Amino acid sequence: MVRAKLPAGIATPAQLEALAEVAEKFGHGKGHVTTRQNVQYHFVQLSDTEAALRILADAGITTKEACGHSVRNWTCCPFAGVAKDEPFDPTPYVDALARHLLRGKYSSTLPRKLKPSLGGCCGTDCSQAFINDLGFLARTKDGQPGFQLLAGGGLSTLRREAMLVEEFVPVAELAEAADAIVRVFHRIGNRNNKAKARLKWAIDKIGKDAFLAEYRAEREKIRAEGGVPLVIPPQPTPPARRTLLSQVQQPDEGYAEWAADSVRPQKQAGFSAIVIRLPLGDITAAQLRALAQLAVQYGEGEVRLTNEQNIVLRWVPNARLPSLHRELAAIGLARIGANTLADVTSCPGATSCKLAVTSSKGLAGVLTEMLDRRPDLVRSAKGLDIKISGCPHGCGQHYIGGIGFQGGMRKLAGKAAPLYLVYVGGGIRATGADFGRLVGKVPARRVGQALERMLDFYIAGGGTSHAFWADVSLDKLRELLADLSQIDEATATDEDFVDIGESRAFEIVNQEGECAA
After folding, report:
1. 29 and 81 in contact (C-beta within 8 Å)?
2. Domain span at residue 456?
3. How many structural domains is the chain composed of?
4. What 3 state SS string does 74-133 have?
5. Which of 256, 285, 512, 517 has its CA 20 to 30 A from that of 328?
């Protein structure tokens, strides 16, 4: 697997062309957008990796520290700079931090990976700072820009909401604050047990107060060393914003349904940001090349990948939206239902990941097809999302899904049968994270039935957000899935031993590997 690191998910036309070339030559024709706003290529021949990396590097894309025990890709709100509820545009700061820490003294020799994020929306947490090891949220104090600093968040087998480290860090001290967190983790993290090596484990071990003391001491050391100035690199000057047209173009059939979910008005009057839905997070080389042209023709000259595995095209004049819809439809990128229940998030799963138990991408494909056939169900079940992971590590972020599915297995008559653990009630709020509650374990082939049953229950109960599930007892939810959860040697069919999307019997193979996200 080759992972292209795109800070804030930003890709220029030249970079989209490079991503397309790698997909075409070495990635079997497509790339995969991850929940960390990267692009991955699977099944790349080892002998081809150097050529692939050179193509990416020539376009300014690095794979350095995209994997391993390092500071990973910086995620950011894809609407940074155009969101109506942000105090200021945080984009230059995420760019500065990514450049500052890349190849840093400690950045690639950490006890385990450190996932960072930086965002700006005050009404939400689009950058998911509360589930990251290091998170910055844009704030202002006395009219000056700065960031709230969070640390120690994470998913996997130990879910933790990030703790507040500093209420306000002035932008001039941003690099120092980030360096201090990285240095503390480098020093106190567990290097003997990979399963307990993330920053959240270190904080749990010494306690929050002790961790804060370590952080403050590190800040003092950095100041004594002369400090770390924040260097804002020159920001690319986007092409002139498209002239607003006085006459709206005539839309094609299906435009209104597409626009309902895909078009988001910007704070800049007359312009909108467009969410381009990528089922399963996959995009072809031809689509990448076409997007490179559309980014220049209709937008600001770049696109932004999202942690929902989609792509955002911004600064589109409202009058040109019908024309853009027509162009997207021609390349298969005008799917309706962006960021709705039908827009399922999933890690690659056992198809390509050594750690995964089940083929989560196979399940995601089945559920996507089912929901696309049921627009009535999708429209009625507002406020929910579906996230799927192939194992407990949670790269598909199922722990924060309104409905989440985690791959697992059980033994029947000495044979392994794939199943999914069902979680409900997960989500990200402006002030924190909610982790889903486990309500049952359902054989893989019955997950579709389980989902329909839960959605019917949600709609009948008047659900409007993931918070709906918090008011429902676990006993009630378990009762809802009780009959689907029952499977034994007498009732199991041959199909129950075959994973979704596979044709041969399910089996567990233990291997060393790296989480997909």
Report:
1. no
2. 345-497
3. 1
4. CEECCCCCCCCCCCCCCHHHHHHHHHHHCCCCCCCCCCCCECEEEECCCCCCCCCHHHCC
5. 517
